[in-house]
Design goal:
With 364 residues, the chain is of the alpha/beta class. 37% of the residues lie in helices and 16% in strands. Strand 1, helix 1 and strand 2 form a beta-alpha-beta unit. It is globular. The structure holds NADP nicotinamide-adenine-dinucleotide phosphate and ligand G4F. NADP nicotinamide-adenine-dinucleotide phosphate (NAP) binds next to helix 1 and strand 5.
């Protein structure tokens, strides 16, 4: 079998989290490279395959049936073992997670079950079944917590970006569960010789991003406000800064990590950091509008320059008990060893999201 990129492969991949943002783009990428793709899907009372409906068909009668879905859950180890024996994947991408940081404060035990112990269950299924699978763990820049803020609190000129050697100091139930997953992945690599790697990915966004994450929440709301379908958008911490990249480029980095001679851990980031406030400003600029701000703290409000209409308000329920204030990644190692480089600028990323949401609104 030959892929679009002329890489000859008949590899099989298993993706947990295939119905999520990253899983859907990764499945497309792997199909393009000639892989057979299996995905784990949670049973749900309503359809949850919207992001992959265009590539999925479980009908063996159809010729191009290279995506197969299986019911499963990271909280169920017997199911993972059965899937391992049945599928015998060459590569496993463990993207399944309770991935919302704020929600993890509401469901901390469940988050640990899925994000921490779920990773152990998967690794142990590889060990127990003896299947020769490579393993990718979806680690996160949330592991660093506020390391950068603390390092630089005395001198702003010392601001550095975060890399594979920077110490972690996670500050949410989500990040702490992911810290366990990070280390258990390394432990299984060292103890059992598994090809297991961590991708420490900084925030990455797309039109398929969940609607409760801040970028998508803003792009949808700004498109609605500018088409007269919504009045005001309420948010929390406007000054949090993130290193936001474009998801299709990041899933390519995941794949590259799985093709090395030796497993290793890599940061994927753009090397640029922007605030939530800048994301709002840039989203309105897509429509040629400027925002100005008045007030402070929870009384702060954002107004449209052209009409003086209030469009942004603050709602204290969106503030986190402990937030990560500042993330900025250094992708040098990925550039050198994976030949990976993101190409989408912040401005382009905002445009991609707002344009897609505007089209959705117009077609709805
Ligand atoms: P997402 O859109 O929230 O997708 C999460 C996926 O995990 C969904 O398919 C979800 O299924 C599945 N899932 C949730 N609980 C599960 C369980 N108990 N068993 C099996 N599957 C379960 O997240 P994403 O943005 O694609 O992120 C993918 C991974 O990368 C996650 O592990 C996330 O923590 C990590 N990560 C993301 C970013 C980022 O910026 N996006 C950065 C660093 C790391 P349903 O569709 O049924 O809910
Ligand atoms: O979009 P967010 O919810 O993403 P967050 O917390 O950075 O987590 C995402 O990226 C991580 C990688 O660093 C992943 F591991 C994780 O799975 C997830 O994909 O929030 C970004 C920032 C935060 O500081 C938050 O306090 O935006 C701030 N924010 C301000 N108002 C808000 C809101 N976040 C959300 N979700 N909703 C608001 O109204």
């Amino acid at each position: 079998m030959t892929s679009k990129n002329n890489i000859s492969t008949s590899k099989t991949a298993l993706i947990s989290g295939i119905t999520g943002q990253d899983g859907s783009y990764l499945a497309e990428l792997l199909l393009g490279k000639g892989y057979i793709v299996h995905g784990i899907v949670r049973r749900s009372s309503s359809f949850n395959t919207g992001r992959i409906d265009h590539i999925y068909n479980n009908n063996p009668e159809l010729k191009d049936s290279r995506v197969f879905l299986h019911y499963g859950d990271l909280t169920d180890s017997s199911n993972l073992n059965r899937l391992m024996e049945k599928i015998q994947p060459d590569e496993i991408y463990n993207l399944g997670a309770q991935s919302h940081v704020q929600v993890s404060f509401e469901v901390p035990e469940y988050t640990a079950e899925v994000d921490a112990v779920g990773t152990l269950r998967f690794l142990d299924a590889i060990r127990e079944t003896g299947v020769k699978s490579r393993f990718y763990q979806a680690s996160t820049s949330e592991l660093y917590g506020n390391t950068l803020v603390r390092q630089n609190s005395h001198n702003a000129s010392l601001i550095k970006s975060l890399n594979e050697d920077t110490p972690f100091r996670p500050s949410s139930p989500y990040a702490i569960a992911k810290l366990y997953a990070y280390w258990i992945t390394i432990n299984y690599r060292e103890a059992y010789g598994l090809y297991a790697c961590n991708g420490i990915l900084f925030n990455h966004e797309s039109p398929r991003r969940g609607e409760t994450f801040v970028t998508r929440k803003i792009s949808i709301a700004v498109a609605r406000i500018m088409t007269g379908k919504q009045d005001v958008l309420h948010l929390g911490n406007l000054d949090a800064r993130r290193d936001w990249g474009y998801t299709p480029e990041f899933v390519d980095g995941m794949w590259r990590m799985m093709q090395l001679d030796e497993p290793d851990d890599f940061v994927l980031a753009t090397g640029e950091s922007h605030s939530v406030r800048e994301f709002i400003t840039e989203s309105f600029r897509f429509f040629g509008e400027e925002i100005y701000w008045e007030g402070s703290g929870i009384a702060e409000k954002g107004y449209l320059q052209s009409t003086k209409k209030m469009v942004i308000g603050i709602d204290k329920s969106y503030f986190r008990l402990t937030d990560v204030e500042f993330l900025l990644g250094d992708p040098s190692k990925a550039k050198e060893k994976l030949n990976w480089q993101p190409n989408t600028s912040f401005k382009e990323l905002v445009k991609i999201l707002v344009e897609a949401d505007l089209a959705l609104i117009k077609n709805s």
